[in-house]
């Protein structure tokens, strides 16, 4: 689960992260009041969407215009910026061409910037450890730094048995060319990020930029956090930070039914049991030259209702131009799958070609249910056959 910048800053502040005074607003009038309350010579108006690159982005109705991070010299300026940004679509290199509608703004005190650093914590799957990534080249996309000057990216793994040690923080501070009071400030920043990461079961904490001010203090000017969905049950307080506007509606519906579903950009909807088989199915669709529209594992002993819900989600996805069902009935019975497919298709309507490959428990009964359903279903004998058939069917429809 991802959260907004202002929410991440509030959480991190609770762990001692230095952040500036700010207010979240949902209207230009609120922006005016917030800018007055914060005061100072400059406030910054920041679009709150679950995507980075806002500063360098642009609004759909103003292609050559300003981005989603704007400096305002007066409360009136802040109000005007809010008028321009709210309910408009912000396009950044992370949103894709469709962009995201801005519904909230963060009004924050201005900051005097001497240097912009990069800092993030994430789980390195290869070592199974939390890794600190830091760079002197903050404020820009870290992917670009990694591609152009990989030597300017510093990495430091944290031993889970020892935790973050002060010496690691000080060593990193020195490698970031920090001096004097900035070294202790960096230790505080890193400890706050680490404590937040571990206690909230985060998947990523990213501060870009981490700013060094003229007086040598450090400030988290931007913050991104995302959490491990499998650990969210341990943090009911995080659930209220969820912004459903920012989530894929297909994934939201799937989560309601306890399904493992990831929305993708392709055209072939997949319904499979078992994560390994689901991945193999996606691979073989790609090998046949098409792209999967989703990853969907209906799980082991799923009920007829759950399978029907899964099939409905795939059916109702407007990007889907063909569906491949690939079930190996072990604990899962093929007749239950067949009944669920028939029920969901009757209810939602089957508007695209459907290829079904069933194997295992009660396969004959399953095939019988499908062939007597009156639905136009293309049977397949194995996975390769199924992938070839669905790709051929989708391409035939495309030409017609
Ligand atoms: P992002 O583009 O989505 O990553 O949004 P950021 O919060 O990182 O803002 C982008 C850039 O705006 C930062 O790298 C800063 O250079 C600049 N910026 C943000 N806040 C301030 C501020 O208070 N003063 C100044 N001068 N620049 C700021
Ligand atoms: Mn940023």
From TrEMBL:
Residue ranges occupied by any ATP-grasp domain in the UniProt entry: 9-236
Biological process terms in GO annotation: succinyl-CoA metabolic process; tricarboxylic acid cycle
EC number: 6.2.1.5
A GO-annotated cellular component: succinate-CoA ligase complex
Binding site for ATP: 46, 53-55, 108, 111, 116
InterPro entries reported for this sequence: ATP-grasp, ATP-grasp_succ-CoA_synth-type, ATP_grasp_subdomain_1, Succ-CoA_synthase_bsu_CS, SUCC_ACL_C, Succ_CoA_ligase-like_bsu, Succinyl-CoA_synth-like
Residues annotated as transmembrane: none
Cofactor names: Mg(2+)
Binding locations of Mg(2+): 208, 222
PROSITE patterns listed in its UniProt record: ATP_GRASP, SUCCINYL_COA_LIG_3
Textual note on the cofactor: Binds 1 Mg(2+) ion per subunit.
Keyword set, alphabetical order: ATP-binding, Ligase, Magnesium, Metal-binding, Nucleotide-binding, Tricarboxylic acid cycle
Highest rank taxon of the organism: Bacteria
Binding site for substrate: 273, 330-332
GO MF annotations, alphabetized: ATP binding; magnesium ion binding; malate-CoA ligase activity; succinate-CoA ligase (ADP-forming) activity
Listed pathway(s): One-carbon metabolism; formaldehyde assimilation via serine pathway; Carbohydrate metabolism; tricarboxylic acid cycle; succinate from succinyl-CoA (ligase route): step 1/1
Subunit annotation: Heterotetramer of two alpha and two beta subunits.
Family classification: Belongs to the succinate/malate CoA ligase beta subunit family.
Biological role: Succinyl-CoA synthetase functions in the citric acid cycle (TCA), coupling the hydrolysis of succinyl-CoA to the synthesis of either ATP or GTP and thus represents the only step of substrate-level phosphorylation in the TCA. The beta subunit provides nucleotide specificity of the enzyme and binds the substrate succinate, while the binding sites for coenzyme A and phosphate are found in the alpha subunit.
HAMAP family, A to Z: Succ_CoA_beta (MF_00558)
Protein name, per record: Succinate--CoA ligase [ADP-forming] subunit beta
Biological source species: Gluconacetobacter dulcium
């Amino acid at each position: 689960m991802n959260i907004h910048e202002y929410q991440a800053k509030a959480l991190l502040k609770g762990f001692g992260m230095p952040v500036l005074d700010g207010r979240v607003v949902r209207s230009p009038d609120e922006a005016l009041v917030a800018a007055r309350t914060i005061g100072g010579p400059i406030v910054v108006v920041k679009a709150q969407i679950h995507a980075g690159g806002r500063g360098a982005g642009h609004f759909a109705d103003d292609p050559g215009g300003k981005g989603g991070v704007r400096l305002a010299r007066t409360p009136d300026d802040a109000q005007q910026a809010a008028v321009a940004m709210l309910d408009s679509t912000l396009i950044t290199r992370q949103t894709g061409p469709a962009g995201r509608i801005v519904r909230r703004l963060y009004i924050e005190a201005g900051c005097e910037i001497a240097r912009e650093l990069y800092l993030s914590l994430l789980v390195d799957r290869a070592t199974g450890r939390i890794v600190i990534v830091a760079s002197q080249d903050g404020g820009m996309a870290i992917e670009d730094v990694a591609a152009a000057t990989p030597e300017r990216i510093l990495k430091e793994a944290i031993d889970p048995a020892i935790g973050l040690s002060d010496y690691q923080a000080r060593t990193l501070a020195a490698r970031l060319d920090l001096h004097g009071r900035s070294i202790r400030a960096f230790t505080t920043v890193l400890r706050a990020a680490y404590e937040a990461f571990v206690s909230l079961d985060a998947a990523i904490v990213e501060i870009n930029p981490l700013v060094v001010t003229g007086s040598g203090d450090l400030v988290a000017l931007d913050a991104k956090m995302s959490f491990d969905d499998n650990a969210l049950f341990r943090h009911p307080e995080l659930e209220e930070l969820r912004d459903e506007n920012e989530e894929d509606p297909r994934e939201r519906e799937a989560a309601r039914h306890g399904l493992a579903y990831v929305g993708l950009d392709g055209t072939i909807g997949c319904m499979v049991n078992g994560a390994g088989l689901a991945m193999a199915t996606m691979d073989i669709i790609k090998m046949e030259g098409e792209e999967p529209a989703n990853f969907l594992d209906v799980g082991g002993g799923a009920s007829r209702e759950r399978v029907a819900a899964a099939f409905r989600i795939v059916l109702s996805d407007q990007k889907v131009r063909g569906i491949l069902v690939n079930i190996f009935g072990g604990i899962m019975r093929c007749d239950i799958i067949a009944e669920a497919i028939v029920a969901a298709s009757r209810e939602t309507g089957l508007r695209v070609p459907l290829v079904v490959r069933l194997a295992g428990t009660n396969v004959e009964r399953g095939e019988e249910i499908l062939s007597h359903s009156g639905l136009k279903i293309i049977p397949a004998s194995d996975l390769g056959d199924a992938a070839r058939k669905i790709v051929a069917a989708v391409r035939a429809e495309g030409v017609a």
